[in-house]
Every structure is written in C-alpha cells, then in structure tokens.
Here is the input.
Amino acid sequence: MFPPEQMPPRVFRRIFLKRSEIALSKLTPADAEWLETWINDPTTTRWMATGRVPTTLEQVAFQIMQWQEPRDWAFAVLISDQLNVDGQFQAIGSVGLYDVDWLTRKAEFRILLGAPHTGKGYGTEATKLILDFAFSRLGLHRIWLGVTDANIGAVKCYERCGFSREGILRDDLFRDGQFYDSIRMAILETEWRARCRTGERLDLDEAQAQETAGGAHENLPAV
Here is the structure.
C-alpha cells in the first residue's frame, strides 16, 4: 500500500478501442479515485463478491498495480461522447480479461459498471469490444465468466454476446445473509468467428490521438 500523498497523480491517456458511445482505455492506478466509488456502492455490487467489505482508495490503486500484461488486461469503460466537469471522458466502470493461460489460450472475463449506467446497452457493447480484443488481437481461444444466477440482466447480456451456460456452482456467493448460486458461462473463438460471419462482429475504431486526464480509481474482480 502507499499513503495518500504517494497516490499516483492524474495522467493523460489515449483511448484504445471505441465503438458508438463506448470507449476503452487502459486502467491505471490513477483510476482508483472514481472506481472506488462504484466498488463501495451496494447497488452497483449487489450480486458480486466485490463490495461485501469496505475497500479503500489505496487498496483499489494497489490492486490495479498488480494487474500486469500479459496475464491481466484491465480497461476503463468510458462514454466517448460525454465529458465530465473536468473535461475528461465520463468513466462508468471497468472491464477486462484476467488470469490469462497462454498455453490453453483462455482467460476470465470480468466487468463492473456503476449502477446508474446499467440497462442502457453499455455493458453489452463493452463486452463485445473485449471479446473482439480477446479473439482478434490476443488470439485467445476461450473466455469464461461467473455470474450470480439472481443477476438476470447480466445473464441475458452475456447470452446476447454469445456466451453459453456450462454449469452451476451451488451456494457459491454469500451476500447480505443469503447464499446464491453462480452460473459458469463461456464462449469459444470458433463460436465468436461464426457470429462474425453472420454480421455480428463489431467494426472497431482505434482512437486517434485523443487524450484525457484519468482519475484515481480501481477495478476489482467482479461479475
């Protein structure tokens, strides 16, 4: 950990991938400031392991520092056509690929969006951007995730993106005095390619020299 006076300063960064209203930029320790807000928001993390206990700004920044390529690929999710009061793109959450196994060419998918930004299609677009990145750029073969069965909206989002249910983990999450089952879902590269051939592949635009100051926030493993 590091004391507040040693927290990473705001940094300028480039957008990496963009489509429609959603853009992805590499997550940095400077993003902990805004991401910590969502991690500690009980509505945002209602169906997640994340958020069951308090998380500090320093803990969030420290976790981001631990995520390093080529094992972890963490991104901030931005609304590319909206600026906040500081003139920065509005950050609404995080998304990424974690624990990449380069021999089997598989990784875990995780996403966290602030509660006010769910139900607007942003999660679906961010998920598809990451899948295209995983299969078309990293050359991965299998992307899997875990989602609480009660999180019906998330399950439907993943199914729309091509994920298939593979199994159930009983009483896998204890939250607010209750146990919940988790659904394991996955999508293979061949399945993604088939969707591409039917016209479902996203036309990705690499951002031109757009730069924005990032706030200090953190992205924790959560689905």
